[in-house]
């Protein structure tokens, strides 16, 4: 059986800021909590009362919005946040794990303990921090249940298949558990994940009362979190970043629009060996041998709102297609257009996975704590830059990454931004993939 091995040759033209030995009188690093509310579109707090989010903005930093990586999906985007690497570099290219030989597909939740899907040579921050003496934990955060280079996260709770997404009492209990990890067990870095408002966004659509209701529940949870930080005495020692993985847009359906439906145009049984379709706005096809050109030529013009690319021609600024796992033909719809394959069974009212330049795919960034300025509105930036910020806040030397502290340094107060002596040189990491068949 043929396997392929990707060797990443990383040529760094950037010198990332790195920690230097602590000096007398210098501020020490703080603890860090990263909270992710899945599918929280950048403007979800603008048409509903969110007093706790409002207080957070006064007490810390709010970015106008941030841009997730393409493809705007949960596992790929979360792993970019925790690794600072583009999706084509870290290799978690889809929510679903798949095998083009066995034709098996695994759901998002089924992948959570599957190290072979997550561990592609890029170390997430949990492991890097642990290797530098920090104690880290993941509470339901995607990727936290896998091993990386043989190492597991110090403590990891993985979501069960039947985990309820929207139980407010459980949300609060989880905050108390995390607070105890920080105070009683001296954890330094914890990632905490919630499956909302993504679930409600899919089920009911983003422009609905249901979505406003869940945003208010999240707002109350933010209030619970800030009160808990006071109660547990962590206000002066804990930095908090609240973010998300992508936005959400309303799915366009018949009869309002003509839906994308590939089986109208190609015969799957003759041309397609394997595909990842019927999963929202993005899809991939592995043609049968010799059939790639035929599929491409037919599909490229079938729908005015469908983009079809050969892998090698996929726009480079998505930083997506170079990974060996990406299949030879890629398709994505304009916002709201699902890529339907054999049948139109898709029932979601809202979805993501679309172009990350679309405003509905943008998401949130909030931060507060001893290292952050107060009442500071930050300009938009890419979520890939969260990683070097987290390393900086923790006093951890980053792995090679595609982010830069340049985009977030302004949001830190003088004590926090000045605690590193090395200059920050902005650069570009060039990652060349040598794919060698063995
Ligand atoms: Zn998500």
Structural description of this entry:
The chain is α/β, with parallel strands linked by helices. The protein has two domains: about 30-250 and about 355-425, 3-Layer(aba) Sandwich (Alkaline Phosphatase, subunit A); about 260-345, Gyrase A, domain 2 (2-Layer Sandwich). It is about 25% helix and about 20% strand. The chain has twelve helices and 24 strands. It has helices at about 50-60, 75-85, 85-90, 115-120, 125-130, 170-185, 200-205, 210-230, 270, 290-300, 385-395, 415, and strands at about 5-10, 30-35, 60-65, 65, 95-100, 105, 135-140, 145-150, 150, 155, 190-195, 240-245, 250, 260, 270-275, 280-285, 305-310, 330-335, 340, 350, 365-370, 375-380, 380, 430-435. An eight-stranded mixed sheet has the order 10-7-11-2-12-21-3-22, with helices on both faces. The protein has a four-stranded antiparallel sheet with strand order 15-16-18-17. It has a two-stranded antiparallel sheet with strand order 1-24. Strand 8 and strand 9 form a beta hairpin. The radius of gyration is 22 Å and the shape is globular. It starts with a strand and ends with a strand. Zinc ion (ZN) binds near residues 38, 39, 74, 198 and 246.
């Amino acid at each position: 059986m043929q396997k392929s091995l990707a060797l990443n040759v990383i040529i760094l033209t950037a010198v990332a800021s790195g920690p230097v030995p602590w000096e007398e009188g210098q501020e020490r690093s703080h603890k860090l909590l990263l909270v992710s509310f899945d599918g929280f579109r950048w403007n979800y707090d603008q048409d509903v009362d969110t007093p706790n989010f409002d207080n957070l903005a006064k007490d810390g930093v709010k970015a106008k919005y941030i841009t997730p990586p393409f493809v705007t999906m949960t596992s790929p985007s979360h792993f970019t946040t925790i690794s600072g690497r583009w999706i084509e570099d870290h290799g978690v290219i889809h929510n679903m794990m798949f095998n083009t030989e066995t034709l098996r597909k695994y759901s998002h939740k089924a992948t959570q303990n599957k190290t072979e899907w997550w561990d592609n040579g890029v170390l997430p921050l949990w492991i890097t921090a642990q290797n530098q003496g920090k104690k880290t934990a993941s509470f339901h955060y995607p990727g936290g249940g896998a091993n990386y280079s043989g190492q597991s996260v110090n403590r990891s709770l993985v979501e069960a298949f039947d985990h309820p997404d929207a139980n407010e009492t459980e949300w609060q209990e989880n905050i108390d558990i995390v607070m105890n990890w920080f105070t009683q067990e001296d954890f330094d870095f914890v990632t905490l994940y919630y499956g909302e408002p993504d679930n409600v966004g899919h089920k009911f659509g983003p422009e609905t009362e249901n979505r406003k209701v869940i945003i208010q529940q999240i707002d109350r949870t933010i209030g619970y979190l800030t009160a808990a930080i006071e109660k547990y005495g962590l206000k002066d020692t804990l930095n908090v970043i609240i973010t998300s993985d992508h936005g959400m847009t309303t799915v366009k359906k018949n009869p309002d629009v003509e839906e994308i439906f590939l089986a109208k145009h190609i015969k799957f049984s003759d041309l397609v060996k394997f595909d990842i379709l019927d999963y929202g706005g993005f899809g991939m096809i592995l043609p049968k041998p010799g059939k790639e050109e035929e599929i491409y030529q037919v599909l490229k013009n079938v729908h005015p709102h469908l983009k079809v690319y050969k892998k090698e021609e996929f726009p480079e600024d998505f930083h997506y297609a170079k990974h060996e796992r990406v299949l030879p033909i890629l398709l994505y719809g304009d916002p709201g257009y699902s890529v339907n394959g054999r049948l139109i069974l898709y029932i979601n009212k809202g979805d993501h996975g679309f172009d990350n330049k679309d405003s509905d795919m943008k998401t949130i960034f909030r931060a507060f704590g001893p290292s952050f300025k107060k009442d500071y509105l930050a300009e938009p930036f890419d979520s890939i830059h969260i990683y070097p910020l987290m390393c900086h806040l923790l006093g951890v030397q980053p792995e090679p990454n595609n982010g830069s502290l340049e985009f977030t340094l302004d949001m830190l107060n003088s004590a926090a931004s000045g605690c590193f002596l090395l200059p920050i040189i902005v650069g570009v990491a060039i990652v060349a993939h040598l794919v060698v068949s063995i």
